[in-house]
Design brief:
Elements lengths: L8 H8 L9 H16 L5 H16 L6 H7 L7 H16 L3 H18 L1 H9 L2
Length: 131
């Protein structure tokens, strides 16, 4: 499983593409990113992209769903220097499930990984499992 404490926060912020103030709510930022993507692509995805990203991330982190078994194996070996590759791998996996390019979803994956790194797996699964 993803060793949240081994993730490099600077690499995650780089993937997100902007600073994430501690006072900012993860959901608010996720919706903001999703609407920005919608505006850029004219894709009609809006907040659904954030909701889909959260759902898939929950499946990855909080369940044993087989479709993410390979990503979990890779994630179990994460080190700070591997963080960028993990973001790319998760983005590619989610992009194929959601039906959108990995580069489009990368900021959302970075944001979700940052949330995981800040609060830990148990708190993350409890918070996002109730949505």
């Amino acid at each position: 499983m993803i060793q949240a404490s081994a993730l490099d926060p600077d690499a995650l912020l780089s993937a997100i593409g902007r600073d994430v103030p501690d006072s900012e709510k993860i959901d608010d930022l996720g919706y903001q990113f999703a609407f920005e993507v919608n505006d850029q692509l004219g894709a009609g995805l809006g907040s659904n992209l954030w909701e889909k990203a959260k759902e898939e991330f929950y499946v990855l982190v909080c369940t044993n769903e087989p479709r993410y078994e390979e990503i979990r194996k890779q994630a179990s070996k994460v080190t700070p220097s591997y963080t960028t590759m993990l973001v790319a791998a998760v983005s590619a996996a989610f992009g194929s499930v959601i039906g959108i390019a990995a580069t489009v979803i990368t900021p959302l994956v970075g944001l979700l990984l940052l949330a995981l790194a800040k609060v830990g797996k148990n708190a993350f699964c409890e918070a996002f499992g109730s949505n």
